[in-house]
Amino acid sequence: MGIPEDNTTYWHAIHRCVALGWIKPAAQLLGLHTAWQRLQLGQSAGDASLAGQLQVLEALLILLRRMPVLVAPGGGVGGAGVGRMVGGGGGDSAADFVQKR
Q1: Full-model pTM
Q2: Among 25, 60, 90, 96, which has the highest number of CB atoms less than 10 A from its own CB?
Q3: CA–CA dist 55, 39 (Å, integer)
Q4: Could you tell me which of 61, 8, 52 has the C-alpha nearest to residue 30?
């Protein structure tokens, strides 16, 4: 199967998921990174490279969890009309989000 993070389509897929507001699939893709597998296998002892990778991955997951997502008036993500922001500690509306940017 290979190492996911060595394939450029892996990173492009994560980027596209985030751009579309698909936070859960983006986090799931980050979960496929081999650094997590190496940590589970106990290969982290004294490995500065692995520690650095894990710090970056954990930071990315935190950012994804805190990222605000625009929700359409009907409750679904996307769609027409003025939506509201959920997650990320943002305001209640898209206008609030733009104002705070």
Answers
A1: 0.66
A2: 90
A3: 12
A4: 61
Q: Which of 24, 90, 12, 26 is nearest to 99 (CA)?
A: 90
Q: What is the pLDDT of residues 7-64, one digit of tens each?
A: 989 999 999 999 988 999 999 999 999 999 888 888 766 788 888 999 999 999 999 9
Crossing angle between the packed helical segments 23-30 and 48-66, to the nearest 10 degrees = 170
CA distance 75 to 55: 34
- Angle formed by the axes of helices 23-30 and 8-20, to 10°? 160
Question: How far is residue 95's CA from residue 28's CA, in Å, rounded to a whole number?
Answer: 30
> Under DSSP, is residue 96 helix (H, G, I), strand (E, B) or coil?
helix
DSSP secondary structure letters along 53-93: HHHHHHHHHHHHHH--EEE-TTSSBS-SS--EEESTT--SS
What Rg value do the Cα atoms of the chain yield, rounded?
A: 17
